[in-house]
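User: Show me a protein chain along with its predicted structure.
Assistant: Here is one chain, sequence first, then structure tokens.
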Amino acid sequence: MSETIRHHRACHLCEAICGLTIETRDEQILSIKGDPQDTFSRGHICPKAVALQDIQNDPDRLRHPMRRIGNEWQAIEWDEAFTLVAERLAEIRERHGNNAVAVYQGNPSVHNYGLMTHSNYFLGQLKTRNRFSATSVDQLPHHLTSLMMYGHGLLIPISDIDHTDFMLILGGNPLASNGSIMTVPDVEKRLKALQARGGKLVVVDPRRSETAAIADQHLFVCPGEDAALLFGLLNTLFDEGLTRTGHLPVDGLDELRAAVAPFSAESMSSRCGVPAEQIRQLARDFAAADSAVCYGRMGVSTQAFGTLCQWLVQSINLVTGNLDRAGGALCTEPAVDLVANTSGGHFNRWQSRVSGLPEYGGELPVSALAEEMLTEGDGQIRAMVTVAGNPVLSTPNGRQLEQALDGLEFMVCVDFYINETTRYADLILPPTAPLEHDHYDTTFNVFAVRNVTRFNESVLAKPVGALHDWEIFVGLAKAFASRIGAELKPTMAPDQMIDRALRAGPYGDNSELTLSVDRLRDYPHGLDLGALKPNLARRLKTANQRVQAAPSLFVNDVARFAAAAAVQPDQLVLIGRRHVRSNNSWMHNYHRLVKGKSRHQLLMNPTDLSRLGLLDGQRVRVRSRVGMIEVEVAVSDEMMRGVVSLPHGWGHGRPGVQLDIASRQPGASANDLTDERQLDVLSGNAALNGVPVWVEAA
């Protein structure tokens, strides 16, 4: 009888990176369970981890390069595929210039270290300014705020959830997301431990989310108006003398005070929907706690004042003395230190051709992608490379993007599936499955609530004829360099790169731990490097090594906030929704994750349902400026009046999609309603929350 082998590694399907125990026999997965010896997740897993087996065995997952001939797909060899990509992209660049080729990188890129280490080995050769990613439909305001205040876009203070006495969450639902820009496995136990030690959890959300349901206090807030609440809180802290001097060197506190002075709790109450006395009391409670932290996540970034929201979140932590303080917001010191080893980033060095939207870190806002394809003229996008992304379902106005993709001269996708986006490709290049390659979490250790590290060995053998994602980019890079006559620098495997970074890092050759990849192999359950500690003062990357409390970019945007029009009475507005069994658009093809009752209905408050003459469970039409969908409506007292909620990532009923399970319960795409013209104009981030919609019987 064959031997049963036990493996230990982290799940990489979301940001929590929970430790797993995986048993295999003869390259078959027997079981996937939480690892109780994992130093970070302590045995916790969510349903997504078990779906790693479904990904491995999914008959719809591509195993070979596929070329589209008309409406049919044919397998081709790797070398032929690389040559085809190099020839077509080089030829299009020669006719139309470098910017005629665009790149889109999806969220899974940061979950696969081979993409992090090697994608630019090829993509950098394209020398295009038309680069896009999921960052600008998610977290761009976080990075821009840290760049302007602390000098580096990845120097993001993390909530010290295990030691705080008061946690204020806005626009986040960690019980569904497992934490986000806050790597926090087993988050429910951590939040309940906060409450058990006498602390308080307050959640601000237009929906009584899973996290709000366990909170000590939940406040409804009008979608898109979190900035009004935050202005009211910060104004109260100054007005009532509730600020606390911290140890950090800071510039601009007087300018910050002046910027928020016009926005009292009383004046902000009507905009955000929270009574003025509740705003003031929340500010008092926050300031009175021995330690407190304000955490704002995707819900406050994906709105018209997303960057102002993130600035105000950081400012509340700063002026109460909770920035860079135990129990407040602290920066990690990871074993692979991206802050120390990368440039801080840059902003607005160039703009998009059509709408003039600003770049950040070499990427343009993805809301501009479709118009850059559809608008004729010099610099028009005519070819596309997508990497682990499905922008038709994950970016605003997906129907417009479909039209744009259909008109491209050439498109190549690095992806597992023929999905809503890749069906337009001429060529799809599928990498090995997650358990067939090793992995190191370069990104999520930067955002973790403890300093942790682990090296994840592959669980299953690499299939004959398959290529890892990094090997695909090496193949593309060599073919393209040969085609254009460029010299290509040598490279090395990702584990060798990580080994060098570990040795050069704070726990490497010059420390007692002497970390390396080989050393981490001695810690299959992960290695805990300790609690987060104050370190921001010595890690600041600003020009004068001082916190910039009032960057002029942000202060100047306050006038736009002050002049914004209020939402019209009786106008329904749309927000998104997370679920623990889902992750964006790509996890709906696994039976374990979609079984049971459907979870893609439009949620509506019972008063709104009655006012519109609708019935629970009825099919309805939902319209916005850009499109219309049909979906089932579900009554929910979780919802604030005037607000409806639809999860993103659904909409699998499009022709040509080859996702059998997902196509049987397709749902509707929220991004057929979101508007590419609704933006945080400061950063260019998409405003996916607070979209005006109209609902009627279908």
